[in-house]
Specification:
With 219 residues, the protein is an alpha+beta fold. It has a single domain, classed as C8orf32 fold (Roll), CATH 3.10.620. Helix content is 35%, strand content 16%. The strands form three sheets. It has a four-stranded antiparallel β-sheet. A two-stranded parallel sheet has the order 1-2. It starts with a helix and ends in a 17-residue tail after the last strand. The C terminus is likely disordered.
Amino acid sequence: MNTKTLACATFFQLLAAFGFAQTDFAAIDSWAASLPFRGEKNLIRITDSLTNRFESDLEKGRAIFSWITEHIAYDCGQQNRLEAEPEEAVHPLYYTQQQVELILKRRRTRCEGYAFMFRTMCRLAGIYATTLEGYARFDGRKVDPATVQPNHTWNAVCFDGEWFEIDLTAASGQCDNGQFRRAPREEFFQMNPNLIERLYIPIEDERHSNNSGRIILKF
C-alpha cells in the first residue's frame, strides 16, 4: 500500500477540532457549483469559463478552489489500485494531459491530484501558485523528516500580492468506511498560520520565501 495515499486518507479523520473565522464567498461558491463541465477535457476552457467574470486574484482563486472541491472527490479506494494503475502515482509536478483528463473523467483524485489541478488552473488564470510536498502531522506528534516519508501535498498561492497556503484535500470532505463524503471545510482556504504551523511541515520550508514575486512552476 502506498504510504502517502494512506496518510492522505487518514488526514480526513483528524480535522474536526480545527475552526477559524470565515469570509463570505457564497456568490462565488454558488457560481462554481453551477458549472459541472461534465465531458469537458480542456482545462483551459474550464478555467476561463470559471474565472472570466471575476477581477481579483482572490475571487478567481476562490472560484477555482470551490469548483475543484465541489466537483472532484477524494478517491478513498485508490490505494487499492495503485499497482494496477501506476500512472496515477506520480509527483504533482509531472502530471500529463492524460492524467488531467483521467481526473476530469473520473471526478476523483488524491492529494497530489488536488494540488496539481489547483496550481495548474491558477496558472492558467494568471495567478502565482505552487505545490508544497511534505508532512501533515495528523495526531500532533513531532515528525522527523529524516525517518518519515512525505505524506501530503498542498498548495501555496499568491492572491493580489499576499501569499497563502491552501489544502484542497482537507477542504473537500472525508472518507467514511471507504466512501467519500463531501463536507467542505472553509478553514483550509487561506489557512490560518496557527493551523499551518500545527499541521504542516513542507520538505523545504518555502513559506514566505517567494514574496519577491519570483516563482518557478514546472510542468
